[in-house]
């Protein structure tokens, strides 16, 4: 196999598997270990992958944080299905934490009529929840302008004093190795605390967030159940590492 063909094969495999070992590539391509290592070095120099011990991984794309308005128009149908499934898990008398974010916001119409208490750090969430006559507690603290999420030490201290039957979280990245991640360290701290104060925690994401990694880690992959859309074939292996509910 020619050099360019090997390089194309390696990049295609990384798109499907995220990580590859040198030994795998030796067996698949039928070339020596030294040739494969040179290929990986060349591809790293070209910015196509990142070398790791014994192999390579896909290069992470920077995950910027869109505004809430920008998030709302993306994957609307997928988010609606995820939100509906998440809301079906809530029972009367639950005390739930509803994280800021567009997918958690989409849950609120499906909560109408339920006898529950909702604690949230989402300013738009609190408004809609009260419009639906749902008992609502809004955390205090600083409002993050881009996402309308309340963050900071005041909100963290408040979370120390409450416990939840269930928490429903938004997230920017879900990855087998890096776990659940988000761009903002202060928002990550709030998410982390809410998960720890909950009996059960659910992460609501559309499939575009799978195999993505953002700046700040919130939790390990096995700490929360993931609620998402039907998993593509290349992401089925997530089921080996955490519980998945597919909408």
Automatic annotation (TrEMBL):
PANTHER family the UniProt entry points to? HTH-TYPE TRANSCRIPTIONAL REGULATOR SRLR-RELATED (PTHR30363), TRANSCRIPTIONAL REGULATOR, DEOR FAMILY (PTHR30363:SF56)
HTH deoR-type domain: which residues?
3-58
Q: Read off the Gene3D superfamilies from this record.
A: 3.40.50.1360, Winged helix-like DNA-binding domain superfamily/Winged helix DNA-binding domain (1.10.10.10)
- Whether Phosphoprotein counts among this entry's keywords is no
Name under which the protein is recorded: Transcriptional regulator, DeoR family
Annotated InterPro entries: Carb_Metab_HTH_regulators, DeoR-like_C, DeoR_HTH, NagB/RpiA_transferase-like, Tscrpt_reg_HTH_DeoR_CS, WH-like_DNA-bd_sf, WH_DNA-bd_sf
Against Pfam families, the record matches this protein to: DeoRC, HTH_DeoR
State the species of origin.
Alkalibacterium subtropicum
Question: From what superkingdom does this record's organism come?
Answer: Bacteria
Q: Which UniProt keywords apply?
A: DNA-binding, Transcription, Transcription regulation
Is Ribosomal protein one of the keywords?
Answer: no
MF GO annotations: DNA binding; DNA-binding transcription factor activity
């Amino acid at each position: 196999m020619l050099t360019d063909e090997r390089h194309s094969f390696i990049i295609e495999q990384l798109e499907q598997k995220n990580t590859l070992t040198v030994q795998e590539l030796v067996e698949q391509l039928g070339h020596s270990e030294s040739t494969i290592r040179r290929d990986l070095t060349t591809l790293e120099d070209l910015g196509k992958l990142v070398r790791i011990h014994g192999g390579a991984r896909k290069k992470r794309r920077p995950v910027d944080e869109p505004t809430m308005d920008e998030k709302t128009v993306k994957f609307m149908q997928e988010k609606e299905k995820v939100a509906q499934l998440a809301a079906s898990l809530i029972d009367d008398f639950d005390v739930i934490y509803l994280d800021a974010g567009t997918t958690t916001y989409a849950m609120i119409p499906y909560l109408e009529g339920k006898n529950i208490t909702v604690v949230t750090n989402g300013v738009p969430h609190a408004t809609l929840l009260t419009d639906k006559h749902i008992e609502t507690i809004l955390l205090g603290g600083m409002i993050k302008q881009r996402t309308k999420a309340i963050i900071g030490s005041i909100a963290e201290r408040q979370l120390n004093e409450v416990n939840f039957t269930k928490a429903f979280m938004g997230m920017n990245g879900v990855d087998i190795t890096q776990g659940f991640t988000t761009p903002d360290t202060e928002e990550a701290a709030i998410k982390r605390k809410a998960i720890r104060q909950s009996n059960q925690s659910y992460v609501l994401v559309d499939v575009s967030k799978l195999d993505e990694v953002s700046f700040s880690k919130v939790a390990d992959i096995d700490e929360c159940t993931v609620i998402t859309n039907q998993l593509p074939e290349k992401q089925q292996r997530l089921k080996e590492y955490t519980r998945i509910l597919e909408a």
